[in-house]
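Let's sit down with a protein and look at its sequence and fold side by side. Once you have written the record down, we can walk along the chain together.
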Amino acid sequence: MFSIFKKDKTSLTTIFPENFVDIHSHLLPGIDDGAKTMDASVALIQRMRGYGIKNFVTTPHIMEDVWDNTPSIIQGKLTELTAHLKSIGITDVHIRAAAEYMLDGNFNVLLKNKKLLTVKDRFLLIEISYLNPPLNLYEILFNIQIEGYIPILAHPERYGFYHENDHEYQKLKDAGCLFQLNLLSLSNYYGKPVNQMALQLLKENRYDFVATDTHHERHLDFLEKITDKKTLKLVSPILEKNALLL
């Protein structure tokens, strides 16, 4: 039977607060597995701008023997991108560059050089292998903090080896590690187990920040599919927390 009442189609991409900062993305062209060209970078930024996201800290990978990016390479690409945006009349978007550091064999060398790119101030975005955590993970986390940084672990819900060891999440928090939720994990983009763990950690208030981790257009397609009202209610307060990193 026809109804005059339409189903609410509110999606995640309609509820970003005005001062939201996307602290994890791969928008710099041709520098890692994110945007491949300047046009691709602009297309992603334009689309996210349509969601109301105008503040970005883009975070290319730094990973030994895979993405050997340096601060100078990253800053150079940022300069190219911001100049291009200005040249085509996009002046209301603010982009800074940091990095997503893999805790691999080369990380300690980078840490000792004390030239790490932070999300803001002392906040350092890190990731670990999806196969297994470093044997000396807690030593690395301790060293990060000794050097004056605050570690933010990217997408903890995606590390499958922790799914059956929930106590490890609390152990990480107790070790001073902040958690960043990948908003895509609220869809089934990474699979049902990741989605379930993201919702569990969200309900347990373990997340400190959120981010899109955007690499390409398909990621944004899935963001637009996140419409569950209960999920949106759970994540809304953390969207506001990201403004602390403005």
In short: The beta strands are 21-22, 55-58, 61-62, 94-97, 100-102, 123-127, 150-154, 178-182, 209-211. The CA atoms of residues 79 and 175 lie 36 Å apart. Helices lie at 38-49, 71-87, 107-113, 137-146, 167-174, 192-203, 217-223, 229-241.
